Amino acid sequence: MPPVPFTQGSLFGEADAIGYGSGQVYDEMVNGQGRLRPHWQTFMSTLGPLDAEQMAQRWEEARRLLHQNGVTYNIYGDPNGMERPWPLDMMPLLLPAHEWKAIESGLIQRASLLNAILTDLYGPQTLTRYGRLPPSVIHADPGFRRAVHGIRVPNDVHLHFYAVDLARAPDGRWWVLSDRTQAPSGSGYALENRAVIAKVLPDSFRHCQVERLTGFFDTFKETLLSIAPRNGGAGSGRAPRVVLLTPGPYNETYFEHVYLARYLGLTLVEGADLTVRDRTVYLKTLSGLEQVDVILRRLDADFADPLEMRADSSLGVAGLIEAVRAGNVVMANALGSGLMESMAMKSSLPTLCRHLLGEELRLPGVASWWCGNDAERAYVIDHLDGLVIKPAFPSLSFEPIFGAQLSAAERSALVERIKRRPWYFVAQEQMALSTAPVWQDGRLQPRPLVLRVFLCATPSGGYAVMPGGLTRVSSESGRLVVSMQSGGGSKDTWILAPRRADVASTQPRPALAAEPTASGARPSANDLPSRVADGLYWLGRYAERAEGALRLLRATQSRLIDSNMPGATLQLRPLLDLLSSLGMIPAEMARVTESGANRGLREALHAAVIDPDHPNSLRSQVLRLHRTAYSVRDRLSMDMWRVVSAIDRQTQPPKGRMDAASLLLRLDDVMITLAAFSGLEQESMTRGAGWRFLDIGRRIERSLHMVALMRGVHIADLDREDEPMQAATLSVLLELGESVMTYRARHLTSVLRTPVLDLLLGEEANPRALAFQLAALDRHMRALPSQGVGTGADPTGGALAIVAAARNSLERTDALASSEALRTLFDTLAMSLPDVSNFLAHAYFSHAFARSA
Amino acid sequence: MTPPAPAPGPSSSSGGLSTRYRVRHATAYDYGEDVPISHHLLHLCARPHPRQRIRRSLLTIDPAPAVRAERVDYFGNTVTYVAVQEPHRTFSVIAESEVEVFEPPALAPTESQPWEQVRDSLRGLSGPDDGAEITQYCFDSALVASSPELLDYARGSFTPGRPVMAAAIDLMNRINREFAFDPTATTVATPMAAVMRNRRGVCQDFAHIAVGCARAVGLPARYVSGYLRTLPPPGQPRLVGADVSHAWASVWCGAADGWLDICPTNACVANRDFITVAWGRDYDDVSPARGVLVGGAGHGLTVSVDVEPLED
């Protein structure tokens, strides 16, 4: 490697002084002599002395911000892989303006080239007809989507968003490792990395004149709006509707889908939220069908439409391709764009570039040979030792095979495999990656890196590059594979603006740009997809269900621990009856009379708290709550999400055994966190349809729970019990209904059935009373959009009628007076109230998923 | 799912060079309850074919669809997209056509090229138009993935130097002999590996096996869906409504001989008794009726096919 001529010492002198030694490869920070490269000097001087304690503090700060912002990623197939915290290194990767300029122009050329190839292969196919590309390069590739061949896309743009993985060779040149053209991920993480690092290293960020990322996303948003077909909204004057289509919460980069949708001001939708009618795509919202003009897809084309692609896909939208064909909706990227991820085409790019653009390919790709071509295959078989064998097409997956590591037998087996189906294999030169400093174990250490850069189409038909990127570093210094999935980390990427003198004419930058900022308009209330309303509804139900279970467990547990509590022994009986009637403990446990003595009972209660395999345990309810919250995460505030995470943590099974007292303490903690959740519900959610559904869920669940409690203690037959038992039962009901204080304030001593029931059922001012729930339900349902997307003529009519009937029955003066009346009342309520849920579901939620026939 | 025809003769009774048929293919779904919307993709209109002329073709759909759009797919088949957008419990399509099928020229299987030559000739076949059209049938497809088992089986017919047509016909005869026709053995969802293992299936399965074997030795092969005229036993009237849609395979035999249609179910090379509707890489590309609906409570499906020769 030629020595870098610049030898001016940094403020810190030689890199050795900070204990940073780079190896034989190119290091991003220091040159061959171990001196800091010039573009790192401002950064290192603003960073200050590399004090371990201060760096640790900054690191803590970064972790806190990431946690607060809920930055996570998922690993498929790993039960513990959901919501991994995002690994971010504090040291950004710095690139100087002049170097970036070269990369930028090379990438823009490459994007135009790949788009031109897509335009040809999904159109006239002159490349394969006239020998520029072997036809097998597309026909052997499962990623070539025959169904979309011949569909014209606006302005011939197939590729609206594109990512490239780059690596730097020992000679200092950047090379293209791979192209991401299907639904590239990482740009949202790059934004989040920037937000965190700009806060953690504010001085460095300010002084280094770092290029901002927001302009790029503004351009992308403009492009998305500009490709909307105009015919749909002609005359209506409405703005085009752009949605982000996600495969859902279990996708590995779901966090990013939520983040980008918010950032770009798009509605986040899943396939089930969309429907195709008259070859037009509509969003199913609470107020009816809303036309969709542009779909930014994070869903692979294969899953996009069960009618024309994979029939087993439940993630897509039936008829979507026909809507695209009719020109009523535009996909970004166009369906089929994943074809350019094929490794088989890489070796042809230089010739194709000359042919299609009349230019030399500016940014080289890592040398690769496609075995589907006779000459290239012969080379591969002769030179296996120096090559890495990879799948030619992204849909085939096998681990890279390093030729040098094969035994003679493995080698001939591989050659046999290649010869049998040559088109499925490519070979690539093995490349030594450059290194960048990572803060680890209290010092800077060089780690291999791969840089992912993002491009978007511009409204005028060109491409723009995001001035930054997602730098990924490997976990160990010697690793050849850099991947987040195998434990690597990420870095912010700083493109340094040209020196001040060069930018005098450009607009002044705000001194402390709060980056990133959200751009574009928020989705309107009409955009509440029915699925999200459904999710929020169940979120309310599960939160309330968890609370109900918790109160019951806590009341029981406290009496088991402290039998000196007044009435403890007697009160245990109705409590155990309730636990058993609600399926939380086995029926035979309810018959235990000796308080505290029974070991089986203690174990049953323990299981009812923390056993995740027990369907009615508190833990199971919390898991449902967590899962549901996850599915509507884009609608919850950061704080609400943190509270949900806390509830999840607090109910995780303990490592060892937990004694009864600490179990009780744990229940108290969960109670407070659940209360925090309902507090945020009331205090930090806008009173839109989404909130209403959440609250409807809570009110219905609380109503059903109250009816279940009354029936569980056989309230109608309570007068058959002796007086102390009556009092014990009523006291338990008051406690579970959070109404002990109110009752005492009114009635002082005697606990009698009618006043207790008045308070828990009929008292509209008591937020725990049934009447309160019914009044709230009535209010909410009247405020819902009158036209649901279901088939019913009057979506809320049926539900409103049930609620009205229930309220009437409570208001009758004799309703709570006799045992007979009570029995009728609760039997009727237990029958009718669940139908409120059914009516709403029918009217507003689309549970019916598309299926193949 | 057509069972082997009782006695598939080399030519039809009229003795001429072509036969005209009236084909009626009725498909009816019962969804069990009202569904608000359903989308369908139909491969029911017979495609153009060098030995076949479509004289009339008509699709009758009930309930009347809100959207109906016809196009030609990547393989040259006619495909119809249909959407019914009002609540409906049943959905039916009746495809009626009048088709004239010409007798293929007499074959000289033993005079065709050795199969290796045909295979190797594909390498250079990147030239205008035909190359890509032919070679696209060389590769794995959704339902037909090559496997060592298929290759082993294929090698029993594709012996070194054997003329390609003779080898393909031998393959067809072996599948016919060694696989049992058994409508209870498989469904549309049965993977090919299971058919290979159990040696039982229906015409679709046999067509897939033949296609897979040809591809395993490096020859392009396509899956053909269509109808077969079932010849009545002497003295009895033709059974109406007993027929269903049929499938066979077509193997590329080189530039001189072109595509050879082989029917492993009946152990015969396609003649005037075979009416072609569509072809593709496998069943998935050309399934006669594919639909997606919202809701529904299970569905019943009734299919009937009448293939009636017309007297001139």
TrEMBL record, chain A:
Pfam name, any one = CP_ATPgrasp_2
Q: What InterPro entries does the annotation carry?
A: ATP-dep_Glu-Cys_Ligase-2, CP_ATPgrasp_2, DUF403
Residue ranges occupied by any DUF403 domain in the UniProt entry = 528-845
Record region (Disordered): 505-526
According to the entry, every stretch annotated as the Circularly permuted ATP-grasp type domain falls at 92-474
Annotated membrane-spanning segments are: none
Q: What is this protein called?
A: Uncharacterized conserved protein, circularly permuted ATPgrasp superfamily
Automatic annotation (TrEMBL), chain B:
* Signal peptide range in chain numbering: none
Gene Ontology biological-process annotations = proteolysis
The molecular function GO annotations come to:
peptidase activity
InterPro entries per UniProt: Bac_transglu_N, Papain-like_cys_pep_sf, Transglutaminase-like
| Key word Hydrolase present | yes
Q: Disulfide bond among the record's keywords?
A: no
Q: Which SUPFAM superfamilies match?
A: Cysteine proteinases
Q: Which Gene3D superfamilies match?
A: 3.10.620.30
Q: Where is the Transglutaminase-like domain?
A: 195-266
Keywords of the record: Hydrolase, Protease
One Pfam family linked to the record:
Transglut_core
* PANTHER family hit by this protein: BLR2979 PROTEIN (PTHR33490:SF7), BLR5614 PROTEIN-RELATED (PTHR33490)
Q: What is this protein called?
A: Transglutaminase-like enzyme, putative cysteine protease
Per the UniProt record, the source organism is: Azospirillum oryzae
